[in-house]
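Re: phosphoenolpyruvate structure - here you go.
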Amino acid sequence: MNFILPKALAALLLRTVKGSSRFLLVEPIHNSDELEFGKFGVRAEQLRSLHLLGFPVPDGLFFSLDQVAELPKNICSLLKGEIANLSGLYSLRTSAGQKHWGGVEAVLNIGISDDYVKEIAPKIGLRNALDLYRRFICSFSILVNDLEPEIFENLYYDQMRLLNVEDEQSLDERALNLIVKESKSEFDRLTGFKFPQLLTEQIDMVFHAMAQSWYRPSAKILRKARGAPDNAGTGLILQRMVLGIGKALSGSGKCSPIDQASGKPFLHGFFLPNSQGKDATMGLRTPHMFSEAQKRKEQQSSSSLEDLNNTCFEKIKEILAESQTKLGDVFDFEFTIEENRVFILDSSKAERSPRASVAVAVDLARSGTISKEEALLKINPDNLIEFLHPQIDPSADRDIFGNGLPASPGAACGKIVFSSVAANQLSAKGEAAILVRVETTPEDIRGMHASVGVLTERGGMTSHAAVVARGLGLPCVVGAHDLTMNLSEGTITTRDGRIFREGDVITVDGTLGQALVGCTKMLQPKISGEFSKLMEWADEFRTLGVRANADTPQEATLAQSFGVDGIGLCRTEHMFFEQDRLIVMREMILAKSEAARKNALRRLLPMQREDFIKLFRIMLGSPVTIRLLDPPLHEFLPHSEDEMRLIAASMNVPLSDVVERSKDLKEFNPMLGKRGVRLGVTMPEIYEMQAQAIFEASMEINNGREDTVTPEIMIPLVSVTKEVELIKNRIKNVAKNIESVSNSLIKYKLGVVVETPRAALRAGDISASSDFLSFGTNDLTQMTYGLSRDDAGRFMQDYLERLVFPHDPFHSLDVEGVGELLLLASQRAIQSNSSIELGLCGEHGGDPVSIRFCKCANFDYVSCSPYRVPIARLAAAQASIGQSKKSRDKSKS
Ligand code: PEP
Ligand code: MG
């Protein structure tokens, strides 16, 4: 059995708390400055910090996770000397790695017995002493002996009925005495034992029962659902009771120094006289407010602790302020007042919304309490999503057709789709999809990724749709019971009989929980106030560039408003899905001869040029990386006979020709077929047209300007250097031709998307002929695993649940496998071309963990969706701060 400390060391390291009797609070163990909270749990760590600050924390003893895991039945005799002289009342509480993992409730008043009731009766009154005894017998019996709570509740309510009283306060000494007696004899009868009267006996039994119940399978499942690892343990804290019951002002309460929503200073909480533990939150009596300001804000007429006892209130206020300056954060406190003396029982970081967490961090840094780096490290980058949602313009008219729960904030407008497949198809065309389901399941995750909003008929705030949508930052309304969704027929029917079908445009308002007809007017999010300050600080510290994946002027403008450094990926195929272009694109694809293809490309050229002019104008002074056409051509093919007829008419060829050519172009495995650079090599005119459009657009924009745009042209799906050389020569010729006609010089960069494992392995020679490499980690993950990115959703959830994958490698980079390829590639690339620029443009570019990896791998930038730009800026700053801290630590040691 491991003790907290070997006896000799304990003598050195245990220190008597000022004014306390014999009982001890464990001081830092070994030579460490900090208590290893991994060893004792987070509550123990926090109590220790408060004690060291000199706050009035009742004396206590911490038991380590290891010690509790051994489920000792006789902890007191194991602790021998330390515990032999105990007297009075104690509480026992869990202290796990995270508070929200839950656990057994604290057991209070351990040590109460027939004799002890008599001992404290003069201090707190016999009635109160008996009531504590009654409650202890009840909680002890339930926890230690698994007795039913009803047994004790019935005894209690029987007395209340007998005396014809309605509230607990009306039960007098006599009645409580009777309940205690009956409770004890029920205990004796049901267990076959006498109710234990010795303090050490009670501690032993409660300790063992608490340790045991932490490891029950049901508790494990619950914890796991709250994010605890399988092997999560708990420490235990034995602490002297402060009773909260007495003749002078006594009671218990909770307080917080900030408003949870805004993070701005606001003293609030509650206080219940003559109470302890959870009494104040049980609703049996109405607690007082904490402060007068709270009373005014909440327009309550009841009194406040500030009013009842200003000295105690001021003392707590002082503690709140001091903890903030000394511990560098804002804390909520659980406190007990015993006869006008304040004690702190527990504290944790003040609850706050993501918005409030930014306000608090910035305020703390502005006041000099913490540094800018510490402020930046306090924010979970993913939480910034809350700032980044468009909202419905308050002045807009709302045609509401459904109401549900506001599961994930923000608003989005798009076309109704009833399946993930349809969502993916629509988004591949660059259109916005609203995924409508009765309820979502894990198979829908990929559909949710491809959608801009989600609406479900069933589900609550913690349903699958709600949880996933919040994680993805998607506006989401769940539980819209006034709608009937018929997925097989593809309809939504409203209470008033209106019917909506696939393709109809609707708006989802996840902030208010409404579904609206059509596209409602939106207000785009803005970076302002504390958020803007935080971003400014992030830019001071980050060295990793953050670019956006943006194909349209709208996306580029949004990315600019989020402080982007440039465009890291413009997927040019998205520019061809608009109806008028699609038809020309299809003509180009279906063309039988080079001449016919060139004719279609001539018509596409001005459209492309115009697209690039628009993008360059928005991105003046910043790099714009344009990827040449990538997808398999069959993605552009007409599907229905109607579409084929239309294209045949436009090309002036028989329908059979179109049908035949479409068949010809079908591939067994298009994602590994004729796509990316393979199109460029076999149909070079396409890339030539795109290069011409890029160069002409840049010339037009850069004409006589200083803040010019340098286009960066990117070749997709390369696997051998020869492909790069072929395309490079073609593009060079296009540039030369334009230069000789215009008599001016064209500046551009040429790079490669490294997204096949072979390209990663051959990054050395590929980089010799490239200005930059951008890692396309979506395809690279797909090809490294041999796992279709479009079908992985079918089994991903099973894989995650069975811990086959620790996370979805399409969302967060697989550092071990794909990461190794990235490292290898970046090392080889830098070795062969020291000026090579390295970026990452897969979905992982917006994932904080992957961003940290990119920083460690010496990348120059990441590129992500516009909405994730601020998240990436913060994550990049955190990565830089983390890296310099690590190297500081290294040089110290
Ligand atoms: C990639 O493969 O990582 C990439 C950025 O390209 P896409 O997602 O368009 O295939
Ligand atoms: Mg790709």
